[in-house]
């Protein structure tokens, strides 16, 4: 029988019941410092090898009970549903997708929160990802920006926590979510707080740039869920403010970013402190082939679910426009564009460098545009303030480096502008994905210069896959032709919902 009673509706009493189940506290787990080499990739035909779990207390991670309506789905219905929602699955014993929230078997206290949020049905990644995650298996989940991946891992995390013995003094978290930026970590925490509130799960966010004191106090009090950026978490581990001996549910959000060269050593260090039979879940909108092999080193017998094409792709709800420009034309083009589109809705503008961000923002402000900037050289207090002004719509234009490219979910960002082309096509997909979220439509404008020519071919593929127009100039660049002389191109076919200019009078008006 499953220990996870979806209809109990009372998580606290459920956890109390479990607390005398003979599971020890932290001391029972001897798992610290275990080598990763015990987790490996397996071919489909090869049975999973046994993990070395010497001295580790067993724990529950399979909570999934198929609802009668899901069980009644024939293989053909499953196939049809997956096709309709563009769900591709890999792995052995893949569970059927769920069509409705009620079918997942989430406890009432979780379902109530979902209803309160006003959601109508699971997104595709949730429909297939929830049963997979609830089965306790490792998982790679790839789905477009703004498609609800956060709840795809947070709701099963809540179920997971509520089925574990309560924390003993000195215990570290049960769920660890790693994210690449502070703002994203904080956003995930807010979501965890919202959906975990009714089950009295405590959480904290461990990230740099702010005083350690309050974070240390949270850790010492005991929290079931920790959301962290790697650097500060390692600080906390090195100074013994927490430990990962009780982590049994590990999430890498923006997993391809977390496994790239910048973060990989830190991830390795963190993961080496977590027991090998943990459940590990990776999520992203992009999944370059190069990370797959590295990623699988940390997984055991994983499922993989991909929504839409397995190739790099952008969210189809976003209209994409690309304008071939020269570097010197960019600012004037930007202002023209802003005059066209500015109607008080939020506009996010990406730049390459912090310096560029500052320069353009200063210029925009001098010219009367309500712009603020967020990047890594700003104090965390300023970053927080800028983001909150942007979210509140008080400062509808935000300029940013890639620090804002991934994961951030700001309501009603209508336009994303790539003032500078990003350093990779993956970043392009994440950046423009700040608009067109959760069923909304969005528009992205991208300035593309001769210096970006090497990205032309892949960019064209992304545009085509999403059914977007490719200008003859860009197509020529994709074929290796030199870019046209400056002044060509332009956002000819952009939507013409011209807004009023914003701010005071400008010299070129
Ligand atoms: N089932 C649902 N129905 C409608 N909206 C949902 C559903 N699940 C989540 N959302 C909302 O969709 C928005 C985007 O979700 P989320 O931030 O998790 O996207 P994501 O897939 O993680 O995107 P990214 O790749 O950019 O990180 C959020 O505002 C979230 O509340
Ligand atoms: Mg996300």
UniProtKB/TrEMBL annotation:
Keywords: ATP-binding, Helicase, Hydrolase, Nucleotide-binding, RNA-binding. A motif (Q motif) lies at residues 99-127. It is an enzyme of class 3 (hydrolase). GO terms for molecular function: ATP binding; hydrolase activity; mRNA binding; RNA helicase activity. It comes from the Eukaryota. Residues 333-478 form the Helicase C-terminal domain. SUPFAM superfamilies: P-loop containing nucleoside triphosphate hydrolases (SSF52540). Residues 1-20, 38-52, 490-500 have a biased composition (Basic and acidic residues). GO terms for cellular component: cytoplasm; nucleus; ribonucleoprotein complex. Its EC number is 3.6.4.13. Residues 130-305 form the Helicase ATP-binding domain. Signal peptide: none annotated. Residues 99-127 form the DEAD-box RNA helicase Q domain. Belongs to the DEAD box helicase family. This is RNA helicase.
């Amino acid at each position: 029988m499953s220990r996870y009673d979806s209809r109990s509706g009372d998580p606290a009493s459920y956890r109390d019941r479990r607390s005398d189940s003979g599971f020890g506290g932290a001391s029972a787990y001897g798992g610290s410092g275990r080598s990763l080499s015990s987790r490996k990739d397996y071919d489909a035909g090869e049975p999973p090898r046994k993990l070395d779990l010497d001295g580790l207390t067993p724990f529950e991670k399979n909570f999934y009970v198929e609802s009668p309506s899901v069980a009644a789905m024939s293989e053909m219905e499953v196939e049809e549903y997956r096709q309709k929602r563009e769900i591709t699955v890999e792995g052995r014993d893949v569970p059927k997708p769920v069509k409705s929230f009620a079918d997942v078997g989430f406890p009432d206290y979780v379902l109530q929160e979902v209803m309160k949020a006003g959601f109508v049905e699971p997104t595709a990644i949730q429909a297939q990802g929830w049963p997979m995650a609830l089965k306790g298996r490792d998982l790679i989940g790839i789905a477009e920006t703004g498609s609800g991946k956060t709840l795809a891992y947070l709701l099963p995390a809540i179920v997971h926590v509520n089925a574990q013995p309560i924390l003993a003094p000195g215990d570290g978290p049960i769920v660890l979510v790693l994210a690449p930026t502070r703002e994203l970590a904080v956003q995930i925490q807010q979501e965890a707080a919202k959906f975990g509130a009714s089950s009295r799960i405590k959480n904290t966010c461990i990230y740099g740039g702010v005083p350690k004191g309050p974070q240390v106090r949270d850790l010492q009090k005991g929290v079931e869920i920790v959301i962290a950026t790697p650097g500060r978490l390692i600080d906390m581990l090195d100074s013994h403010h927490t430990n990962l001996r009780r982590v049994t549910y590990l999430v890498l959000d923006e997993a391809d970013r977390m496994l790239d060269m910048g973060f990989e050593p830190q991830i390795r260090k963190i993961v080496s402190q977590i027991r090998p039979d943990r459940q590990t879940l990776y999520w992203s909108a992009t999944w370059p082939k190069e990370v797959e092999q590295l990623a699988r080193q940390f997984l055991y017998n994983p499922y993989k679910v991909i929504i839409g094409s397995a190739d790099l792709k952008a969210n189809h709800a976003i209209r994409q426009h690309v304008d071939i420009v020269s570097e010197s034309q960019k600012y004037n083009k930007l202002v023209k564009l802003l005059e066209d589109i500015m109607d008080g809705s939020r506009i996010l503008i990406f730049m390459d460098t912090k310096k560029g961000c500052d320069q353009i923002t200063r210029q925009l402000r001098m010219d009367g545009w309500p712009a603020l900037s967020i990047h890594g050289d700003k104090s965390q207090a300023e970053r927080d303030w800028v983001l909150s002004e942007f979210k509140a719509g008080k400062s509808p234009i935000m300029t940013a480096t890639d620090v804002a490219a991934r994961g951030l979910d700001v309501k009603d960002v209508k336009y994303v502008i790539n003032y500078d082309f990003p350093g990779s096509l993956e970043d392009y997909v994440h950046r423009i994905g700040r608009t067109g979220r959760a069923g909304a439509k969005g528009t992205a404008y991208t300035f593309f210069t001769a210096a970006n020519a090497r990205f032309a071919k892949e960019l064209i593929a992304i545009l085509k896959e999403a059914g977007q127009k490719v200008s003859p100039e860009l197509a020529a660049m994709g074929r290796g032709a030199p870019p046209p002389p400056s002044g060509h191109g332009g956002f000819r076919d952009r939507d013409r919902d011209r807004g009023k200019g914003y701010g005071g009078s400008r010299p070129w008006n």
